[in-house]
Fold this protein.
Amino acid sequence: MDQEIILKLRQAADRYECAEFIKADPVQFPHRFSDRRDIEVSAFISAWMAYGSRKVFLGVLERLHAMMGSPYSYIMSGEWAVFRGNASCLYRFYTWNDFAVLCERLKGVYERTDSLEDLFVAGTLCTEFYGVNGIPVPGSPSANKRIHMFLRWMVRRDSPVDFGLWTRLSPRDLLVPLDTHVYQVALRLGLTGRRSADLKTAVEITRQMAQIWPDDPARGDFALYGAEVS
């Protein structure tokens, strides 16, 4: 990677990894809470919903959070059970029943453990949520952008955006959350030559970001989000 690109990416990361970024991003919702479990639940649901039109899914998340109040208390109360079997649309490919199933699985997790971090350490998250619409199946070759965005929020430390709540996972092991925009920017900058935005491409781009931030390659998410490419 040449020095001009490195400088461009460093400047973009400095510009976009700031408190102002939170206002228009789904990370705004977990930032409304101080309790660790509220943050985790809000973040997991917010990441699950984060695809398609940003304006639309932020609106849906706003309504869900208004309904839930404390996300953790809502999950444990079982209030979500009223949506079981409800096939009406919540958002795009998600139904209200999908939301109820997600909540039910979250309740099961928190009945056994105090943090979703335990699932990631054990490598069982996708197994735990197997069959939930929007959660990747174990071993999926897709980039799984929303899962890796959630991990970025939970693991990266000393950030005005990310929480750094989890201490048993290292920021150096995170992948850059890969969506279409980040992929297109990386492609134009010559950071990947792969022709699909899949898991292998996310790994390749993350390795490139590790040349700049070896202990924190996922900072490249902010860099690629904001980099100006002619």
Summary: The chain has one domain: 3-226. The first helix runs from residue 3 to 16. The chain is about 50% helix and 0% strand. The beta strands are 89-91, 94-95.
